[in-house]
Amino acid sequence: MIPEPSFTIPKLSPGFKANITLPGSKSIALRQLAMSALVTGTSRITGIPECDDTDAMIDCLKALGVTIETQGRSLLVTGPMDFGSQAVALNARMSGASTRLLIALAALRTGTTLIDGHHSLRIRTNAPLFDVLRRHGCQIESADGGLPATIRGPIHVQDTLHIDGSLSSQYITALMVIAPVLARRQGQDQQVIHIDGDLVSRPYIDITLNEMSKRSVVGHWASPETLRIPAASYPAGSYVVEGDASAASYFSALATLHHGTVTLTNLDATSVQGDYGFCHIMALLGATVERQGMTRISGPEQLSTLARIDMQEMPDVALTLIAMAPLLPAPIEITGLQSLHHKECDRLECPARELKAMGVSLSTTHASIAIEPLLQRTPSAHRLTTYHDHRMAMAFATLGSALGTLSVDDKSVVNKTYPNFWEDYRSLQT
Asked: Structural domains in the chain?
């Protein structure tokens, strides 16, 4: 894909009002697609976002023998996938979450599965997940835990699965999705997963539990470190993907910064997405948040100060807060950011580099960033390097909205998860 020319983020005027229908949650969509691949029968999934990540997952599942058809706003996904000995090659493109789920699905196969992707995906480690699979009978060829990787199963598990939870919850989610099948294959009534190390992003694991429960597979936390997943076969059925709470953060931030009002039509208080908690942070900054049947964020006339906030439970929206921080009325320290080093780009050091280039004063540690406000200072005009990371462009739209002098090097990078982002952004100009 050839990047588009540099694009200047339009400046927004205060007091706008807009309704936004968010793309479906990528996190939920990918989980439902992976579970559907394990179903003997057809699953109808409504609300799957049209974006590069879900397109990559769909193409990979088709290569694994899953039939996927479009019917109106729904996808009809007919499994099961091919568990046999045929060699299969998969291209996960730039989707880290898809990669981890596909690795787990590959472990159920007797054949060889080659998984590869974009350079930005190749440098992201899968070592914790590979280590678990190797311990339980899978043959894996990989240089330093990255892609390309070749996986040959099937996995054999007679005891507890131990997984390092300190880098990413995606490894744990991948094991959870295949756990009911593993337990059933081994003749056990459940599969136990024990998380070693400090767990990051527990809310994403809770999303997985919630989506599995929609298919009558009710796992639970037996302790803060241990999950128990029952043996089961995923049923066919109809499932709906709610709006993406990570995407909601950009419009929540814009409403808060500009004394505007944004109504998110397909996201409400029933959401279990951890990133929905970003609305609470906006409330701490002075916004008013309504959550009944939708979510409406109304920005304050004057922003409140927020000296310190821990974002460990909301890593995907931490970047939004980092990008809007120079516009706050007082310094802010954002902590719990250790997992940001392992995303599409280093989402701690890369934004810090870009902010410094604009003249923003800040300091970082391995797990935190402290940012000084711009106040009345005018930052330098700047061309933002997105590092092939969709969230860099969307998060920094919050800062660019107040300046009118910030451009991005690749407008189309948002296509990874939110192709209509700039169109929805422009709806705030009217």
From this structure: 7-23+242-429 (3.65.10.10), 26-240 (3.65.10.10)
Q: Are residues 42 and 76 in contact, defined by beta-carbon separation less than 8 angstroms?
A: yes
- As a whole number of angstroms, the distance between CA 280 and CA 309 comes to 11
Closest by CA position to 36, among listed 275, 212, 161, 184: 212
What CA–CA distance (Å, rounded) separates 219 from 221? Answer: 7
Instruction: Output the pTM of the full model.
Output: 0.89
Cα dist. 232→39, 61, 176, 187 in Å? Answer: 11, 21, 12, 11
Distance, CA of 267 to CA of 295 (rounded, Å): 6
User: Whose structure tokens read 């639970």?
Assistant: 220
Q: Which helix (H) or strand (E) holds 184?
A: helix 170-185
pLDDT reported for residue 1: 45
Residue type, 137: G
- Pair 401, 360: CB distance under 8 Å: no
Q: Does residue 164 sit in helix, strand or coil? A: strand
Cα 128 to chain center, whole Å?
19
DSSP 206-253: HHHHHHHHTTT---EEEETTEEEEE---PPPEEEEPPBPHHHHHHHHH
Furthest-apart CA atoms within the chain: distance in Å: 67
Radius of gyration of the chain (CA): 21
CA distance 146 to 225: 26
| Whole-Å CA distances, 307 to 115, 229, 285, 355, 367 | 44, 40, 10, 19, 16
Element housing 255 (H / E): helix 245-257
Q: Using omega within 30 degrees of 0 as the cis cutoff, is the peptide bond preceding 49 cis?
A: no
Treating both helix axes as pointing N-terminal to C-terminal, what angle do 96-106 and 26-37 enclose, rounded to 10 degrees? 20
pLDDT digits (tens, 9 = 90+) for 293-338: 999 999 999 999 999 999 999 999 999 999 999 999 999 999 999 9
The residues that bridge with 362 in the sheet, in sequence order, are 371
d(CA 24, CA 290): 20
Q: Which two tokens stand for residue 284?
A: 């701490």
The enclosing H or E element of 151 equals strand 149-152
Say how many residues make up the chain: 430
Q: How distant, in Å, are the alpha carbons of 74, 274, 403 from that of 29?
A: 12, 15, 35
Q: Are strands 332-335 and 369-371 parallel, antiparallel or unpaired?
A: antiparallel
**Inter-residue contact 40 to 68 (CB < 8 Å):** no
